[in-house]
Amino acid sequence: MGGMHDHDPHPAAPPVSRALRLGIGGPVGSGKTALTAALCRSLRDELALAVVTNDIYTTEDADFLRRNGVLSDDRITAVRTGCCPHTAIRDDIAANLDAVESLEELHRPLDLVIVESGGDNLTATFSRGLVDRQIFVLDVSGGDKVPRKGGPGVTASDLLVVNKTDLAELIGADLAVMARDAGAVRGERPVLFTSLREDPAAAAVAEWVRGVLREHPHPHHAPHPHAAASVNEP
Amino acid sequence: MDTRLLLLADSRLPAGGHAHSGGVEPAATAGAVTDLASLSDFLAARLSTAGLVTAALAAASCSFAHSSRDHAVVRAGLGGQLHDHGGEGGRDGEGLWRVLDAEVDARTPSPAQRTASRAQGRALLRVARTTWPHPALDALAAHSPRDHAVVRGGPREQLHDHGRWGGGPHHPVVLGAAAAAAGGTPRQAAAIAAYGSVTGAASAAVRLLGLDPLAVQQALAVLADDVDAVAARAAAEPDDWAALPAVSAPGLDLLAELHLRSEVRLFES
After folding, report:
1. So what's the ipTM on this one?
2. Under an 8 A CB cutoff, do B98 and A7 touch?
């Protein structure tokens, strides 16, 4: 494999900037991948993007994104989580950090890296060591009492997205109740109601992301705290 | 064993180990591991092959990291092996880290396992440099292969590939250097490696097969004496790299290759 003959005597320059890292989490089937695809479609012409997916069935999400022609293959990486999707985004973020940094190395400079979690439950949340901001995605078909149940995703995410509003009437979910309950536990943090079926561009969420990027200067802000510990950047 | 080494041995160390099954996932898919009895056999076999080699490499790395200010002993031990590489070694022995890297490759015939080893090595190095800063860890980061052929499976596999081009140091080398940085001996580094070679796989089996975790823990306890014996043997001659154990496990190698090409993978390896 030539491991002893490919030594590069010129160490890579330390990263002077890195992309904003945005986590998208939420229960199975709530629309995380559809939202990721929507954001990529809406933002790809104005931002340099890449995506890391953590779906338990490995290629499902990556295939979805590729089929939809959202991003080129080499901008999408799938990470396996050993049956523990929450561990991979919260307790042991090693594989996700590795994937994010690899995408940044390959496509530097990137403006935005989206890390989509595997489907989990209401207790899932991203580590601050992995992402700068996080979106939690619920859907109305889980029932309108879900926001009242709380959990870190509902209460502490930077943006709560309640998806599939087109189904609300069919399943008897009261959006006003969801908005009221979410507001009660989230304070000033925003909540957006979406129907990705009716608005495939997720216009409101994309605008929120643009706002985050405006207040989070890129690509010339400080390196990530873990960057100094990376391989080949002593 | 002191607390620093307990931290290094802990499965909660955030170094990505939870996503590697040590071959248990492909073994379960192939029907080779189905219950407690077959898991116990698998773990015993894994310990005496991959476990022994991994532990020996970790012990060698630990010893070398401790001696990183004086490489005369190791140089003498390696003799002619250094003629091609001594020039880039310098006083901190960077070239010797690359020799040790090659020793790992030589004992890891499966490309899939090489890739998995480097992925886990990168992750452990990140944690170790943050937790136990040490010149040996810096040298390892600076002088490991930067690019490495990433194993690719079928057409769908190209989406799976990630990692810093598959480069970075091998896991047992980082584990040994991290043990040294945490104040451990080669024997302790070997113990942590041997222990991890069965506990990670056992944990994966609990998750994949729904085995009774208490029964699996008991099976690990039954193996404890064997783990200690493997660690002792692995650390016997840590400075004679060419003579380090090189037992192979073709079944594990084959499973690792099959795993990379399977349609559904929950674990990286």
Report:
1. 0.84
2. yes
**Domain segments of chain A as ranges:** 20-216
Contacts of B142 in chain A (CB under 8 A): 11, 232, 234
State how many domains chain B has. 1
Q: Which residue of A97, A231, A232, A233 to mutate against B (max B Cβ within 10 Å)? A: A231
Helices (H), chain A: 32-43, 59-67, 85-86, 94-107, 146-149, 152-156, 168-171, 175-186, 203-215
**Tokens standing for residue B125:** 């190095």
Q: Are strands A76-78 and A20-25 parallel, antiparallel or unpaired?
A: unpaired
Domain with B254, as residue range(s), is 3-7+19-260
Q: With contacts defined as CB-CB under 8 Å, which chain B residues touch A226?
A: 126, 130
CATH of the domain at B196: 1.10.4190
The answer to whether B14 contacts A91, with C-beta atoms less than 8 Å apart, is yes
Pick the residue from chain A with its C-alpha nearest to B151: A1
pLDDT tens per residue, range B166-184? 789 999 999 999 999 999 9
Proportion of chain B above pLDDT 70, given as a percent = 83
Residue among A57, A78, A98 minimizing CB distance to B123: A98
Interchain contact, A231 vs B138, CB within 8 Å: no
Given a cut of 80, is residue B54 above it in pLDDT? yes
Give the dihedral of Cα atoms B107, B109, B112, B118; nearest 10 deg.
30
Is the residue at B266 inside a domain?
Answer: no
The pLDDT of residue B205 is 97
**Minimum distance, in Å, between the CA of residue A8 and any CA atom of chain B:** 7
Q: B167 — contact with chain A (CB < 8 Å)?
A: yes
| Cβ–Cβ contact B45 with A under 8 A | no
Q: pLDDT band at A55, cuts 50/70/90?
A: confident
CATH fold label, A20-216: Rossmann fold (3.40.50)
| Inter-chain touch A231–B141, beta carbons under 8 Å | yes
Which is more confident, A92 or A5?
A92
